[in-house]
Amino acid sequence: MLRSLVGSEMCIRDSQLHNASTTENYRQILVEFLEDKPRLSECEVKQGRENAVLTTNIGTGILFENERCRVHDFTLPPHSGHQLGMHHHTLPYFFVNICGGANRPGEGVHGLRGAGLTKDGSHVQLWSRDRDLVWVDVANGGFAADGSRVEHVHKVWNDFDVPYCSFIVEIK
Question: Of these four, 3, 68, 100, 150, which has the most CB atoms within 10 Å of its CB?
């Protein structure tokens, strides 16, 4: 399932991402912005990060950043990530799972455990397939509309026997 923004509406289409190379494991994503300018100014993005109650570093490394988006790598080897702290999402984002690997692109399932994703704080198990894409709308810089509570704060880790790999793209 491919979910993308068209204007201010979300457009949902069934889609499969495919490797463009027949000889190499070639992984990339293309994001096309249909609006003339970013939804948020640099000052608004900066203010959102400054207002965050925890780190806004949501992946294991930043791959790219410009005035429209910030792209993170998120890779966890099997049975790792427990030491990672909670993080605060202040921008809308999507993630694309890339777990299939060189020999089996498009195949494979991987998962994460997460905390802070439910109202009662219980741990949840998240499963995804290679090439799944999930959109998460983060309004008000990750706070409730009235500013009374923090939202979009959680952590995830890999308790499973296979690596977890994804790209996370924050939209400014």
Answer: 100
Q: What angle do CA 63, 94, 111 make, to 5 degrees?
A: 90
- Pick the residue with more confidence: 146 or 104? 146
Helix (H) or strand (E) holding 126: strand 124-129
User: 114 and 95 in contact (C-beta within 8 Å)?
Assistant: no
Q: Which amino acid is at 152?
A: H
Cβ of 109: how many Cβ atoms within 10 Å?
Answer: 14
CB neighbours of 44 closer than 8 A, spacing ≥ 6? none
pTM (2 d.p.):
0.77
Are 65 and 71 in contact by the 8 Å Cβ rule? The answer is: yes
According to DSSP, the residues that pair with 62 across neighbouring strands are: 72
Two structure tokens written together for 150:
């923090």
Tell whether the model's pLDDT for residue 13 goes beyond 60.
no
Give me 57's structure tokens: 């570093």
Q: Please provide the size of the chain in residues.
A: 172
- Give residue 142's identity as a one-letter amino acid code: G
Measured CA to CA, the distance from residue 93 to residue 138 in angstroms comes to 7
Distance (Å, whole) CA 104 – CA 165: 14
